[in-house]
Specification:
Length: about 375
């Protein structure tokens, strides 16, 4: 069946949720005969990226207070005669998408990606959607309390494109680019520099790790308002030879296969796409049992789990992996197998296709 699906993604950067939209559109185009349309901000990275089989509609979008964007989206939905509206991001899209659904009467789906608590207004917001898809059981457990009036609720995991992460590691390039001694084990973290991602815990744990084995370097990739605070913490604990703030990178697919360990000690996480990417690269992982992470990492099988905020736990797990290449290889291979089996773009597109058919009564 050829449905017209209008996707709304208002994020400006091409990572996280926006990257998942690209994966979904590409996989839908390859598997189904749907006519996909995408609304995105005219100043976003998505607007500059051609997506095969998708009609792009760029709009002026000035943020979560831009009520005029609702009219722009309503006009597009009516003009293309959309059968389904699929709202992908927050950043105002969830609220504005609910308004577009209410005004047009077109059945709409909201994908929820984060597991943080919402206000009482969320119940009314979600009631405007025909379906709410959570990217993990962890997210579902939070959002479902607001969705009693929603007919269709589903857990549809985010995915990873294995082709994107199929390039072999280049350790010589990594060492040269980030000034890493050739005999060091390399640990990496990829996340916004915000408190709930746990980089301060990594830095503090690295003091113990470096004392146990000085041949180790930790690279922290990301941007955020805690950069200066983290740099001061690194200097205070005399870790400048072992911990480096590397800023935001768009070369994750090149860096990941070249590191030895990925550490992600988050306090909250909808799912943890970086862990899926680590799995695609067969990297060993240290993480925490919060949000949707336990759906990816099983302790001592597909990675090592540590208690959120427990510096000694994080340090001990890292020391174990730094000193045991065999364990790193085994955990990385098991994670790869798990991610390959359960987090493919093909499976994600299939599950969303089922939801499109359900909300339009086309099953």
């Amino acid at each position: 069946m050829s449905l017209k699906i209008l996707h709304i993604e208002l994020g400006r950067n091409l990572y996280g949720g926006a990257k998942q939209v690209v994966y979904l559109l590409d996989s839908l185009n390859r598997q189904f005969e749907y006519k996909n349309h995408l609304i995105c901000p005219d100043d976003s990275e998505l607007a500059k990226k051609p997506i095969t089989g998708c009609h792009m509609h760029t709009i002026a979008y000035r943020g979560e207070t831009d009520l005029f964007s609702v009219k722009r989206m309503v006009n597009i939905a009516r003009k293309i005669k959309a059968d389904v509206i699929h709202v992908h991001s927050r950043r105002g899209a969830d609220v504005f998408g609910a308004m577009v659904a209410k005004i047009t009467g077109i059945p709409a789906i909201c994908t929820r990606r984060v597991d943080n608590a919402e206000s009482l207004f969320a119940t009314y917001k979600y009631s405007q959607f025909a379906a709410v898809a959570s990217i993990s059981e962890g997210v579902f457990n939070v959002v479902s309390h607001h969705c009693e009036a929603v007919k269709h609720q589903a857990v549809i995991h985010s995915s990873v494109d294995f082709n994107e992460f199929s390039t072999p590691g280049d350790r010589a390039w990594l060492n040269e680019t980030f000034s890493i001694p050739s005999d060091h084990v390399v640990i990496a973290n990829f996340a916004q520099l915000i408190a709930r991602k746990g980089q301060a815990d990594i830095i503090l744990a690295m003091e113990k790790v470096a004392k146990d084995n000085p041949k180790v370097t930790c690279l922290l990739f990301g941007k955020g308002n805690l950069k200066e605070s983290y740099q001061a913490l690194i200097e205070r604990h005399l870790l400048t030879d072992h911990v480096k703030l590397c800023g935001f990178t768009d070369q994750v697919s090149k860096i990941l296969p070249s590191v030895d360990i990925v550490v992600h000690p988050a306090y909250a996480e909808g799912l943890g796409v970086i862990l899926l990417q680590a799995g695609a690269c067969k990297r060993a992982v240290v993480s925490t049992p919060v949000g949707g992470i336990p759906e990816i990492i099983e302790h001592d099988k597909t990675g090592l789990m540590v208690t959120p905020g427990n510096i000694d736990d994080i340090a001990d797990a890292l020391i174990t992996l730094v000193n045991d290449e065999g364990s790193r290889d085994t955990l990385g291979k098991h994670l790869y197998q798990h991610v390959k089996a359960h987090f493919s773009t093909k499976e994600m597109a299939l599950r969303y296709s089922e939801l499109y058919l359900a909300v339009t009564g086309s099953e």
